[in-house]
Predict the 3D structure of the following.
Amino acid sequence: MKVIKIDKAKWNDGLEALNGSYSLFGPVKQNECYEFKKLDKDEQLDLSGLNTRMSAKGLIYPHTEAMFTYTLDEGEENHHIMQPADKDYSPRAVIGIRPCDADAFLLVQRNFDTPDYKDPYWIQAYEATTFVGLACNNPCRSCFCTSAGSGPFHEAGLDVLVVDAGDYFLAKAITEKGEALLKVTGWDNELDSDTAEKEIAALKNDAEAKISSTILTDNLKEMPITAVYDAPFWEDVAFACINCGTCTYVCPTCWCFDIQDEVHGTSGTRMRNWDSCMFPLFTLHGSGHNPRGEKVQRVRQRFMHKLKYYVDKYGDGIQCVGCGRCVRACPVNIDIRKVCDLMNNYDEATCAAQ
Amino acid sequence: MVGYIDKIKEISERLLKDGKVDMVIGFRKGTMPMMNEPHRVKSADDVKNLVWDSNCGINLANYLTDRKEKIGIVAKGCDSRNIVTHIIENKIDRDQLYIIGVPCKGMIDSHKITNAVSGEIVDVVESNGEVTVKGDGFEETFNKADVLQKNCAVCIHRNPVIYDELVTDLVEEQADVDRYEDVREIEAMSTEEKHNFFDDLLAPCIRCYACRNACPLCYCPTCFVDESRPQWVGKGDDPVDIKTFHFLRAYHCAGRCTDCGSCERACPVGINMRLLTKKLEMDCLNLYGWEAGLTLDNRPPLDTYKPDDPEEFIK
Amino acid sequence: MQNPYLPYPVRIDEIITETEDRNLKTFKFVFLNDGDEEKFSYQAGQFAELSIAGKGEIPIGIASSPTEKGFVMFTVNKVGLVSTFLHNMKMGDIMGIRGPLGNYYPWDALEGKNVVIIGGGFAFTTLRSSIVYMLDPANRSKFGDIHVIYGARSPGMLLYRNELAEWEARDDINVHITVDATDDPDWKYNVGFVPTITEQKAPPADENTYAIICGPPVMIKFTQPVLDKQGYKHDHIIMSLENRMKCGIGMCGHCNVGKEFVCKDGPVFTLAQLSHIPKEY
């Protein structure tokens, strides 16, 4: 694919050129943290941060999203009947998304875009979006992307990969969508692709070498679900957990949601909101029975889902891209890397013998 | 701190060996700089994992709620006050507890330090009232007093108020601290300024409920935000619902909050919701001369009635 | 793109109070739009989300049979916000149905086989659907012997009492109705818990006999050993799970157990399949 060299002085010109064709989203610094945000016309994104505090998930799959609207006024036509909510799926571009966050959408896609059912909200938002990723030259210490199936220069899920090469950027088109976006920018200094790929590969090697944190999941893949489910370490792992939703909400690959109706006067909205398997309410039956009523069951569910159930269901790796957000954000320092070690090193036979 | 840790281990080991307790609740070393993990030790062999330093800000009383075992618990000043509140509110029995009192000199505010350096922090070392922070290409030393959690900076109850054994001599309590400066700043605002201030304060909230769940006071089996019949609060990201959650939660803590700072510390998006509870704490002090969790002998003012209770505030 | 969250608009056509405690009502719905009934083409064992504007949705097993045309029928226990509101709705009210959802009893595999249906309490809805489906003149010859063991706390707590009496009188189905206890002198059926009656009445296991069990956890817990004793293999014991659900299409995550979504990969599982799944239901 073609690689374009962008003089840093021309970076903003290119983004400005996108304004007519795309709504732009990107990281900005807010209250000492980087967050993704829709950029106003003259607003500039800030690529100086490492990972944003919240993942890019919310750009495609907002915390709260209207699905339908309706009226309860029996005098009105179609009362009590769901009508599609207003949606804007015009083209948008996310600039400066990190490769792990873009990769995460591919993991989530398996859930929302299935052979049997298509989630129209997620799919339409995803398809409307062009992802221009920024490679991580200096990954965080708590990132473990390379052992989670992703990486600091990982291309899957991106339409364009932008690499900071010091004085200039290298922008590599990965998909046709990405190529189309690059055309609009006006950046036109196309390089010989072999030379450019070599330059990118060298930077990639440097970046990957800086990843100091890894996980292993090879044994876990072969273990029966019920064996690791019944492992004795879960009580210890779960002790500190306060059952907040932080890990699930900052996670780019957690997708669970709740559906709620809200009514003001006679006009109502059916909406969906992020939900979390950490909350007791998540599994509470109408009868009062709760199959995951205990904290340890909920903590186990999160790790088992990411590192085992998902692996077994789709047969293509874990439901984690190693962005490290849950590790950094957990109020009580429950660390998925540590838990993954326990799971992967678990030997039912040895434990039973003890 | 080494002295503290050795003593905590020694006491814990003794308690577990003698069968006086079924478990000791304390902290183990975290995997991230400035983070420790609440931890439960059940056998004398495992007490080696217990640690103590200025990153033990999570309130351990939260882990006592409705437990049935005999428990040794490491408690700094605020933890001990929440233990008192737990006992008063029948969430744990005094006889179940062996309280290992830790006179406290305040906990580090990791946000403050993170924001004060440019670059990712790799290591943080604490000694002699100083905190040294290292990262790629930088090393910086702070006075611990300058990087304390906001609640610790104005704390006047650093020593445990209830304990069975202390790990060290009591520390000198801070005197002449202005505990309510931040509250007065808000009180001085106009209505509109206050409105905007609270809008901005709570705008980043993602409704993860880390503040509520880190709080030892928030032990309701079903929180009002989770109740569906009737549904008091919408569940989406409407700012009105978010504010309703934070304001009401604060009111539920009125007269009970010890300003332990766990809520603010736990918040993944850096909201200082402590300002809300702080205002109510100040009101309880001014109206009733009450500070939560200092004694087992009195119930909090808002769940008792006295003929001479002040009434001006409801006029 | 078809929106799987969009319910078909329906009108409540009939409401029947089923049980003496009035906590179970059967609702018959008719589709408002032409063609929706055909699109809502289902099999016995599936469920649907009943959607009430302003309140939300609840997953409920389909109690009517695919052989019954012109309406769909659900029997709803009054437990939560939506079901309580539904119980207070009137004939003619407009609401929605989303589905059919989930898998169904393995009708292809059951062809030519004997079927033993064991039900308890209000978990008899998709079993009713199954019985009506199998007894349909076009289908009856596809199955061998049909046994039904159905119990409730008391005679007044049995669902579909008129139909039960009709089936009881037929000779192409063996119906064993039971109640835990009764002081009704006219009660002419069994008295005793479902596991006990199963032990007495269920046919012996063989390669050609399948059991379908639905009921409260306590009934399942004590019936399973009975079936084990009678030699039923675990891949011949078919069960339908319940879990909290929101989307019904395997996306929202609520009903996830192990690698399965109860709503989409289930709700029907064999006992053999369940042995690989954590007991979180």
Q: What stands out?
A: The mean pLDDT of chain C is 96. Chain C has eight helices and 15 strands.
